[in-house]
């Protein structure tokens, strides 16, 4: 469906002032920050603490939605404890079926307001993150803005690893158009209208990753997304230096080129498969198996 056709179909949706960008119950626009969680209470706590202190300059209000992808509700106690003294409202919901696309849909389903911000559980934002995304979206009059992710390590990586730059990602200049193949949902602000009009914005059966599939469909429908080089989040702290060194060694052993190795590291560190979880031990066999499954000819 084209954006023009979608615009016609949207007229049949009950009037929702929040969806149109003029908040019902809010004097200024409202943003729902959506987080998907899975058995990482320490990371969730760190993220929520950072989200509780986002600058707004009075331009918008915001709340937080946590979608727990654990049927045992492991994130519930963290949310309950922190929401009792947070200044920012937190809504907690559960998607018991373990699938990142379904968890994202559950979070979006519980969002409110004109905009939806997306950030991963293993990341944490700078204090001006949300403000920068919002101001960029308004300035460029686009449908969504994607920010950058800087790697953060709890342990200082060895000098050779830092010098290699294999964990570095290309930083696109602010205003550059997003191509779907480089899109991701770990740092984004979207107009909520494009999500409301789709019963399942993130598809669990997509051949590509669920986020790239989402952006591909929206871009083809006529929506426009740009980059912001100044909307920064940090992530990747759950990856220990020993694991990184082992992964690099195996990748070299399997004859990966430098460029493929860089892409491999980024996709591995951002993987939603659960391999990033501090509670999971990465055996040598598991690393080799994972690397072989993503071997690319270049």
Characterise this structure.
With 298 residues, the chain is α/β, with parallel strands linked by helices. It folds into two domains: 3-235, Spore Coat Polysaccharide Biosynthesis Protein SpsA, Chain A; 241-293, no CATH class. It contains twelve helices and eight strands. It has helices spanning 3-10, 17-20, 41-51, 76-83, 100-109, 129-140, 159-164, 193-196, 210-220, 241-253, 258-269, 284-293; strands spanning 30-37, 61-68, 90-94, 115-119, 123-125, 144-151, 187-191, 225-235. The protein has an eight-stranded mixed β-sheet with strand order 3-2-1-4-7-6-8-5. 38% of the residues are buried.
Spell out the blueprint of helices and strands.
Blueprint: H1 3-10, H2 17-20, E1 30-37, H3 41-51, E2 61-68, H4 76-83, E3 90-94, H5 100-109, E4 115-119, E5 123-125, H6 129-140, E6 144-151, H7 159-164, E7 187-191, H8 193-196, H9 210-220, E8 225-235, H10 241-253, H11 258-269, H12 284-293
In CATH's first tier, which class of the largest domain applies? Answer: Alpha Beta
In CATH, the topology of the largest domain is named: Spore Coat Polysaccharide Biosynthesis Protein SpsA, Chain A
Query: What is the molecular shape?
Result: globular
**Helix proportion range:** 25-40%
Q: How many DSSP H or I helices? A: 12
Sheet with most strands: strand arrangement: 3-2-1-4-7-6-8-5
The overall pLDDT, averaged over residues, is 78
Q: How would you spell out the order of helices and strands? A: HHEHEHEHEEHEHEHHEHHH
Main β-sheet description: 8 strands, mixed
Structural class: alpha/beta
Number of domains: 2
Low-confidence stretches: 1-24, 237-241, 270-284
Q: What integer value in Å does the Rg equal?
A: 19 Å
Task: Identify the CATH homologous superfamily of the largest domain.
Answer: Spore Coat Polysaccharide Biosynthesis Protein SpsA, Chain A
Our estimate of the beta-strand percent is 15-25%
Q: How many β-strand stretches?
A: 8
CA-CA gap between termini: 35 Å
What's the CATH architecture of the largest domain?
Alpha-Beta Complex
